[in-house]
Design a protein that fits this description.
Blueprint: H1 8-17, H2 24-42, H3 49-87
Helix pairs in contact: 1-2, 1-3, 2-3
Length: 89
């Protein structure tokens, strides 16, 4: 019976927590990628490999959504500053 990878649960939990705490998403992405590289290099099959894949995917998705949200917020701030400065004369 295959063993569990030591970081499997950690990656999955960080990916899920990345929904609420954005800083956890890139960490899940990084740790998941690192764990998958270790798995592929060793050729060993782990029982929780699917947890690592899911946690990594969640990390990727929530990191990208956070970046998009940040860009949209910056654009809105720039528009508000331009509107406020041109509206008052």
């Amino acid at each position: 019976m295959p063993q569990d990878h030591p970081q499997g649960t950690t990656v999955l939990v960080l990916g899920i927590i990345g929904i609420f705490f954005t800083i956890c998403a890139p960490i899940a992405w990084y740790l998941g990628s690192k764990a998958l590289k270790e798995i592929r290099a060793s050729g060993t099959t782990y029982a929780n490999e699917q947890q690592i894949v899911i946690g990594r995917i969640l990390g990727i998705i929530f990191t990208i959504l956070a970046i998009i949200g940040l860009i949209i917020a910056i654009i809105f701030i720039i528009i508000a500053v331009i509107a406020a400065s041109s509206g008052v004369r």
